[in-house]
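hey m, so remember when u said the tokens were messed up on ur end? i reran from scratch. heres the input so u can diff it against urs
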Amino acid sequence: MKNKSLVLLAAVALFLFPATNFAQSSQPSEGISAGFKVGANLSNVYDSDNEDFQADSKLGFAAGAFLSLPLGRYLGIQPEILFSQKGFQGSGSILGSDYSFSRTTNYIDIPILLAIKPIGLITLLVGPQYSYLMSQKYVFKSAIVNIEQEEQFENEDIRKNTLCITGGFDVNLTNIVLSARTGWDLQNNSADGTSSTPRYKNMWYQATVGYRF
């Protein structure tokens, strides 16, 4: 986990360095800002081909950085980079024996959002998102057997690079930013359909609290 944290911090630094140089050289510079945010995802999965695979929502951690680049009074671009936990969970019973399972997926999410600013307090955001799967963990528990697997990428045809769509809004309270997002994968989790993991697409709701510099 320590190594993963270092990778995330390095990615944030690489993201902000060129963006900060751009902000300093752009004219006018007023209105350009950056910040950090932290919060949670409520995620689940769905099968666009309507196969019989159902799961319950799962809470996960979300944190990262954002940059606001104005394109005028009412429009702008807001790129972000986030560590984002998604996944699903469920439970049931087989032959009178209860069981539970969960899958946690750790992503680096990079949304590039169009910002629409109808009023100073509210910013509406929508755009594409690139998600890179860093790791995943699957846990199955029952009275008979317990299974825990992590990072089994070489044994399963898991898609690591996924295109998504996301949108939501920010509430701007001076330096404090309250954000709400929702998003969907546009691609299945498996690259060619041969994975033993059930085929699915992620969907999630995200709420964060941020600080704008």
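this time it looks ok to me. Residues 1-29 have pLDDT under 50 and may be disordered. if urs says something different then somethings off w ur setup not the seq
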